[in-house]
Write a structure and sequence with these properties.
The complex is a heterotrimer of chains A (158), B (785) and C (288).
Chain A lengths: L3 E7 L2 E7 L5 H8 L18 E4 L2 E4 L12 E3 L12 H8 L9 H14 L5 H8 L10 H16 L1
Parallel strand pairs in A: 1-5
Antiparallel strand pairs in A: 1-2, 3-4, 3-5
Chain B lengths: L25 H6 L14 E7 L5 E7 L1 H4 L4 E6 L6 E2 L6 E2 L5 E2 L5 E7 L2 H8 L3 E6 L6 H5 L27 E9 L2 H6 L3 E9 L11 E6 L5 E5 L4 H12 L6 E5 L15 H10 L5 E4 L2 H7 L2 E2 L1 E10 L5 E13 L6 H9 L9 E10 L5 E2 L6 H19 L3 H7 L21 H12 L12 E12 L8 E8 L5 E5 L8 H13 L6 E3 L3 E2 L14 H28 L6 E4 L2 E4 L2 E7 L5 E4 L5 E5 L1 E7 L20 E12 L5 E11 L6 H20 L30 E7 L21 H13 L10 H11 L1
Chain C lengths: L5 E3 L4 H11 L3 E4 L5 H6 L7 E4 L9 E4 L3 E5 L4 H6 L3 H4 L1 H8 L4 H4 L4 H7 L6 H7 L3 E6 L3 E6 H4 E3 L2 E2 L6 E8 L6 E7 L10 E10 L2 E9 L6 E2 L2 H5 L7 H15 L10 H22 L1
Parallel strand pairs in C: 1-3, 2-3
Antiparallel strand pairs in C: 4-5, 5-10, 6-7, 6-10, 8-9, 11-12, 12-13, 13-14
Helix pairs in contact in C: 5-8, 11-12
Classes of the chains: A alpha+beta (158), B alpha+beta (785), C alpha+beta (288).
Bound molecules: flavin-adenine dinucleotide and FE2/S2 (inorganic) cluster (2 copies).
Chain lengths: 158, 785, 288
């Protein structure tokens, strides 16, 4: 199995690494780059906790091959806060109690962030649709939905 | 309302307690930097992979792992006989890896340890095991029949705690019995007698984080463990007991836990990784279960069967109840025995029943092993009791809300164990009434579609922590030199948010702003003060009291010094806003920071020293229960509540939508209302999910058919009711911290029964078996037709 | 983890076909990977080589030509389909079916052609494609393109007529009948997201006043199936509409052959076929 050199940008930083074809993007992020914010909870597309933005769109990174991201731009939870300042979605999650055990939080943040940047005035239904691919066993989702709607408000204000 | 129950120095509005401050761990969590066990990597670390049994019950004839050892990168392979130790919290029945025989499909039979996971995965497929299948018991009632295959032939030899009663030569891991009043007389006085059976399948916690642990048996004989466990002290204790290494040589480190719900209480895979580490040459070994392994090999919630006979008078007074509960404990019941016990002593639900005879069994089967799961014992039996209450009410022609209120267990009445409910206990009647009111009980909502009906259902609940009488908690408050505070407690942060509430209590007690208090974010048994376990909704109550005591201990030490410096008697001093003041003389004061590391006079003379406050708490006058009658005082506190739903049911497909979910709990005092509401909503949805969809589907060989999240469905955002209403009721309990009681488990106890009760109102059809899948509902409706 | 394999990402179709010719059975095409990678992780498939078709520009094409039809390239994702202008109106039944597949994040990667090539009985896009008379355009190195109606494409559970050296280049969906109305009903175990317990696609329109109804199903037979016999019923003259509907329900329930699995029993599925068919036809008739 031949290793391949890939180049990509992650959270604004250029990287060049060599990977084997059978490694997933999730593996690249957690095991190679040691960015541990992105979580793994099923590795078969069901839980969505491995979700990151790939070229601006959310993908479940356990179902993307690392070799496929050559030339791409990736955003993970670690890239949300800028210069020590929390992103609106992060502030809203804190204020609405949208994190409990926190294991699902990075994925919900990424999708919430993506949604409110694309659509600063989402309806409740649109929020539900956006996060339907993600699982949370603690919060019952309501605080998460409320937090995303609130974050959209922050966005509209600024 | 606030009762100054602890005799504080003065009465004043609370500054932190009762406020919805944001979680103290939230920033770490939204930054993605909160540490979980799976994120931890150590130098020289090896990876373990398990080989799981394909049989429910089979003799292990031989294991050949020659080929596995030859895979490049493989360091070691272990099988059951390498680790001749048993572990167990209450009953010492569990092997580290299967020995002699396997007891469920999924029991770990061998483990490969390798330099990387890929090698371990490759090697594990090359292990050859020869089995001789044995007859398996796959049903709890079958397991009780005479002549049923025995899951544990050696049950009589297992060590166990005195509170439990395993019966050698049977599959009964624990038999709990209870007798109150006179059951014969009770039924004689009854005018209506109703008997029903109920059932609940095994279900999984589905914590988003699977079980993860790293063990390092070090060459000097010390042992280090990093684990996603709820109860580090239990891990340490049981491991010590099992392998004979004293406690001071074992350190257990627990970072944030990505969901526990009881599944990570007790001890799980920690002994395995520790022993693998030793076998692999004293290098650290990490085991992280995949989701499939989590479904197949990790402990779950036991299955449940109930038979309840209730005698009532025509005007709706319960006179007698004969109860039989049998828990499908699976292959091991080391923790699971306590589930049957807990269900046994709470068996009636939140109702006054003068005459009771109850038997509650934990039964071994060749199903996956069971353990604690949020509200254990109670989620199960309340399904049965709250359905039974509904059926009885309808037989009597009494409104089910009225029937429940009529029999509500109120302060002054006796529980099933003969405990007189304390005068400041919570009020189940108020919870039921609040839910009924919010649901507009009695008002019907018509539907436009003749194929659909709407209806409402209610169910009540109660629970006390299921713990031994000596379960303890403790807390340490350390002042830093600058007057900031480190609070250290043994309760793990598994999502429930207890530590935030504890920080609020500490801030309130110490008169220090909450921003200046940091709760140590990890647990490390070498440094962390003892806590029995993080389970049972006991920790806010018990750690809360321990924190209050630690704060007062620290304050006492501070006042001692301040009294000398300020030349004023201690009882004339108060601590407020980070200062010690002479009452009425704000100009005579000292900054805390000038005292907490020792007070230095201008000439250098120093008095006092670093302030470290400590406090502990154990339940007051809790007792073991009588082995025959089950009478005694098991309960640190009872929390009461009620839950109700409004549903829409499609009569042709069985599809049910919960439109509204209402839950009310008497929490005594909400230390942090936002966190309480978070528990109520989260637990409510978990309960709905478990009740409607979740189950281990087994084939006739005992193989789980849905060991993944594709086919084991849990609630998603698109499944939650449009309206979710949490209601907090506050009747403070005087020995709780600021009057508080626990709520975390309670939040999930009665939604399934409420939904089934609503279906009953909609259609007259009683469904007594969970889950309430659309198909099961359709089948039940069809049977009626 | 995934078993080991070599990875190729050709940038032209001919390159991809060469690779297929070379590796044959040992190669698998990867589009979105949402089926393939899961099967590989489960060790059901262990291909020696994966050929990623996402970098082939002509396969990324989605195009609707008025009066002709819709062409969906093999690398076109469900998201691309949902966002393509006017499809929601023009190909409503297909659009609705696509919208039920997995979740929004999955649809960013998963492809329609992958959905049919995977040939699961539960493929949600298939019933809609069947009643729209869709055709798969299949290509290999030596014989050029052949066009196969979707009805002949599926031959069993996870089995198609594709040979190891062949690629489905695109799916072509002809212009739907004028003024037609279509709908996809997917019954799941939960409200939110699931594979279908039963899926029914229906299309109705009037041909010179005569009511025409087409129906197809997923998850109730070894392959997604169109029940053509139903179409004859609505052409009959001496029956009331209600009678026709009941006749259609009867025929459909006879033509399907559901099995029992973790998602539902055969018995329940049969009931759903009846209920969903009846409801669906009634709704369709009300609109057209
Ligand atoms: C979480 C989750 C939820 C899902 N929910 C649904 C659902 O609700 N409904 C549903 O129908 N499906 C569902 N699926 C299955 C899957 O997403 C769909 O079948 C999807 O359309 C597959 O497309 P893909 O591009 O990912 O295919 P791939 O996985 O890339 O390929 C699938 C198969 O087709 C072959 N193949 C792909 N393209 C070609 C080609 N051009 N020529 C020849 N062979 C080809 C591949 O070799 C492979 O064998 C779900 C999957 C997941 C993981
Ligand atoms: S880990 Fe990727 S979806 Fe679960
Ligand atoms: S907060 Fe625990 S899984 Fe979502």
């Amino acid at each position: 199995m031949s290793r391949r050199k890939i180049r990509f940008k992650i959270n604004g930083v250029e990287k060049t690494v060599e990977v084997e074809p059978n490694k997933t993007l999730l593996w690249l992020i957690r095991e190679e780059l040691k960015l541990k914010g992105t979580k793994k909870a099923c590795e078969r597309g069901d839980c969505g906790l491995c979700t990151v933005l790939l070229n601006g769109e959310p993908v479940k990174s356990c179902l993307v091959l690392a070799v496929e991201v050559d030339g791409s731009d990736i955003l993970t939870v670690e890239g949300l806060a800028k210069n020590g300042e929390l992103a609106p979605i992060q502030r809203a999650f804190i204020e609405h109690g949208a994190t409990q055990c926190g294991f699902c939080t990075p994925a919900f943040l990424i999708v919430g962030h993506w949604l409110i940047n694309r659509n600063p005035n989402p309806s409740r239904e649109e929020v539900v649709e956006a996060i339907n691919g993600l699982l949370c066993r603690c919060t019952g989702y309501k605080p998460i939905i409320d937090a995303i709607l609130e974050a959209a408000k922050y966005m509209r204000r600024t | 309302m606030f009762v100054n129950h602890e005799g504080g120095h003065y009465l004043e509005a609370l500054k932190y307690v009762g406020k919805s401050i944001t979680r103290i761990d939230a920033v770490e969590k939204v930054l993605g930097i909160a540490e979980y066990a799976s994120d931890i990597e150590l130098p020289g670390m090896l990876y373990a992979k398990l080989l799981l049994s394909p049989y429910a019950h089979a003799k292990i004839i031989s294991i050949n792992y020659e080929k596995a050892l030859r895979v490049p990168g493989v360091v070691s392979v272990a099988v059951g006989d390498d680790f001749p130790f048993r572990v167990g919290l209450y009953v010492n029945d569990r092997n580290i890896l299967a020995r002699k025989k396997v007891r469920w499909v999924g029991e770990p039979v061998a483990a490969v340890v390798a330099e990387d996971l890929e090698a371990a995965e490759e090697a594990v497929e090359l292990i050859e095991v020869e089995y001789e299948p044995l007859p398996a018991v796959l049903d709890v009632r079958e397991a009780l029949k005479p002549g049923a295959p025995l899951v544990h032939e050696e049950l009589g030899e297992y060590a166990h705690s005195p509170a439990f009663n395993p019966i050698a030569g049977t599959n009964i891991a624990n038999r709990f019995t209870l007798k109150k009043g006179n059951i014969v007389e009770g039924f004689n006085k009854s005018e209506v007698v109703v008997e029903n059976e109920f059932y609940m399948p095994q279900v999984s916690h589905v914590q988003m984080e699977t079980h993860v642990c790293i063990g390092h048996y070090m060459a000097d004989g010390n042992i280090k463990i990093w684990t996603s466990a709820q109860s580090p002290f239990t891990v340490r204790y049981i491991l010590s007991h099992s392998i004979g290494v004293p406690l001071h040589r074992i350190s257990v480190y627990v970072p944030y836990v990505g969901g526990g719900f009881g599944g990570k209480a007790g001890i799980n895979f920690e002994p395995l990784v520790v022993l693998l580490s030793k076998k692999a040459g004293y290098r650290p070994v990490k085991l992280e279960l995949t989701r499939e392994e989590h479904f197949l090999a990790a402990p779950l919630r036991q299955g449940f069967y109930a038979k309840i006979k209730t005698g009532v008078t025509k005007d709706g007074k319960i006179m007698a109840e004969k109860i039989f509960y049998a828990f499908d404990a699976g292959a091991y019941a080391d923790y699971g025995v306590n589930v049957a016990r807990a269900a046994g002593y709470s068996c009636t639900g939140p109702y006054y029943v003068p005459n009771i005879e109850a038997e509650s069994l934990a039964v071994y089967t060749n199903h996956q092993w069971g353990t604690a799961f949020r509200g254990f014992g109670h989620f199960e039996f309340l399904w049965a009791i709250e359905r039974q209450m509904e059926i009885v009410a309808s037989k009597l022609g009494i409104d089910p809300v009225e029937f429940r209120l009529k029999n509500a267990l109120l302060p002054g009445l006796t529980t099933a164990t003969g405990e007189v409910l304390r005068e400041d206990a919570g009020r189940v009647d108020q919870c039921i009434e609040a839910v009924a009111k919010e649901l507009r009980w009695g008002e019907l909502t018509p539907t436009n579609d003749p194929k659909k009906v709407r209806a409402k259902g209610i169910a009540a609940l109660w629970k006390a922590p299921a713990m031994p009488p000596n379960a303890a908690s403790s807390a340490i408050i350390k002042f830093n030199e600058d007057g900031t505070v480190l609070l250290s407690v043994g309760v793990t942060e598994i999502g429930q948010g207890t530590v935030t509430s504890l920080a609020q209590i500490a801030a309130e007690e110490l008169g220090v702003p909450i921003e200046k208090i940091r709760v140590v974010p990890f647990r490390h048994t070498d440094l962390t003060p003892y806590s029995w376990q993080t389970v049972a909704s006991r920790n806010l109550f018990m750690e809360g009291r321990a924190v209050i005591r630690a704060a007062r201990d620290a304050k006492e030490q501070i006042l001692e010094i301040a009294s000398q410096v300020l030349r004023a008697p201690k009882d004339d001093l108060i601590i407020k806003d980070e200062k010690v003041w002479v009452k009425g003389r704000p100009e005579w004061s000292l900054h805390l920071k000038d005292i907490v590391a020792g007070y230095v006079y201008p000439n250098g003379n120093t008095i006092g020293g670093p302030i470290i406050g400590r406090g502990y708490f154990v339940g007051t006058r809790l007792s073991y229960l009588d082995p025959e009658t089950g009478q005694g005082y098991p309960a640190l506190k009872w929390t009461f509540g009620a839950q109700g739903v409004e549903i829409e049911l499609d009569l042709e497909t069985g599809e049910v939508k919960v439109l509204k979910l209402v839950s009310a709990f008497d929490v005594g005092k909400a230390i942090n209302p936002m966190l309480v509401i978070g528990q109520i909503i989260g637990g409510g949805i978990q309960s709905l999910s478990l009740g409607m969809w979740e189950q281990y589907v087994y084939d006739d060989k005992g193989r789980m058919l849905n060991p993944n999240l594709t086919d084991y469905k849990i609630a998603r955002a698109g499944d939650i009711p449009e309206e979710i209403i949490p209601i907090i009721i506050e009747n403070p309990q005087s020995d709780g911290p600021y009057g508080a009681r626990g709520v975390a488990e309670l939040s999930m106890l009665s939604v399934p029964a409420a939904i089934a009760n609503a279906i009953f109102h909609a259609t007259g059809v009683n469904i007594n078996d969970l889950p309430l899948t659309y198909e099961n509902i359709w089948k039940a409706l069809n049977k009626k037709r | 983890m995934l078993p080991k394999f070599e990875y190729y990402s050709p940038t032209s179709l001919s390159e991809a076909l060469d690779l297929l010719e070379k590796y044959g059975e040992d190669a698998k095409i990867i589009a979105g990977g949402t089926d393939l990678l899961v099967s590989m992780r489960d060790r059901i498939l262990k291909p020696k080589c994966l050929i990623d078709i996402k970098k082939i520009p002509e396969l990324r094409r989605i195009e609707y030509k008025e009066g002709v039809g819709l062409t969906i390239g093999a690398a076109v994702t469900f998201k691309d389909i949902l966002e393509y202008p006017n499809l929601e109106k023009k190909y409503r039944v297909l659009w609705e079916a696509v919208k039920t597949i997995g979740d929004m994040i999955l649809r960013n990667r998963a492809t329609l052609v992958g959905n049919i090539c995977n040939a699961s009985p539960a493929a949600d896009s298939a019933p809609a494609l069947l009643i729209l008379d869709a055709r798969a355009r299949i290509i290999n190195k030596n014989d050029g393109v052949r066009e196969v109606p979707l009805e002949r494409f599926f031959i069993g559970v996870k089995k198609t007529i594709l040979k190891p050296t062949e690629i489905v280049k695109e799916v072509f969906v002809p212009e739907p009948p004028a003024n037609c109305y279509g709908k996809y009903v997917k019954v799941m175990r939960v409200q939110s997201e699931d594979l279908a317990v039963v899926g029914v696609a229906g299309l109705a329109y009037r041909d010179r006043g005569d009511l025409i109804i087409r129906l197809a199903y997923s998850s109730v037979a070894p392959t997604p199936i169109r029940v053509k016999e139903v179409e004859e019923v609505f052409k009959k003259k001496n029956m009331s509409l209600d009678e026709k509907i009941e006749e259609a329900v009867k025929i459909s329930s006879e033509k399907v052959s559901p099995i029992s699995d973790v998602r539902g029993s055969a018995e329940y599925r049969l009931n759903l076929v009846k209920v969903a068919t009846r409801r669906l036809i009634k709704e369709l008739v009300e609109v057209v």
